[in-house]
Amino acid sequence: MKRTTLHHTAKVRGGDLAFYEWPADAANAPVILAIHGITGSHRAWPYVADALLQFRIIAPDLRGRGRSNALPGPFGMKQHAEDCAAALDSLGVDHALVIGHSMGAFVATTFAAANPKRTDALLLVDGGLPLALPPGMDVDAVIKATLGGSFKRLTMTFATHEAYRDFWRVHPAMIGNWSPLMEAYSDYDLVGEAGSYHAATPIDALERDSRELFGTPEYDVALAHLPKLTSLLTAPRGLMNETPGLYKPETLKTWKNKLRVGRGPFGPKSLSISEVPDINHYMIVMSERGAQAVADEAIRLHALSRK
After folding, report:
1. 113, CA 20 to 30 Å: which among 56, 78, 104, 184?
2. What is the pLDDT of residue 178?
3. Could you tell me if 23 and 4 are in contact, meaning their C-beta atoms sit under 8 angstroms apart?
């Protein structure tokens, strides 16, 4: 089923934030705030939206991405969280279940810490825990190793939308996974003029935001205030379909122990971690099977939040 999508804007620092809504039939439907990854857009979420028909879903194009790409820096998780709050405010939404994928999970965690009464529950999808720095490597080296392909893509131009689709079709994470969603996602990401199209995200947004994925003192505070109802879904394969994915099992075990007990605004907590088997970082939200796993966990968290 293809749901209707509504376009909205919210006044934020520097201009208008573009965001989108999949409305539900019921006037009092529960709300989900869905936050995309580092070079993504709201177009990452249609399969998840189709699996959550009973929810009203609000999904921004983050500052520097999609149709919010002209919004100026500085960027960073705190700014993105404030922009997301402005989107909810513009629609009069006072609370939501918050879902974030990849970098969006870092934004979601920051939002939840700043807005505990507005966060019904928090669902992190293959993101949200600071990435590990291998011994002997600095942040710049790891960013290049992890996101080097994204940096290169943002400097490229494409003559046609079909040329950009062809670029994505041979991406290791997309081989065997190409779909109408991916085609629409690819087309939406292109801006500029015919003959010299380019990806929407400016490279300075990627540079600024990627540094926060390895943790900051401010983000440590946000992690210390996770909602009691917080769940992490992980993908066993990474951005290039490689194994292991973003989080090694031993890394997840360490974080689960670190976050087992806290004194945040929701009281003691234990982070729930589950793996979605045989899937990569993109397809955990951009395939029907991955989206269904995300939807099932969102439904579970929503039910617990009502008790």
Report:
1. 56
2. 97
3. yes
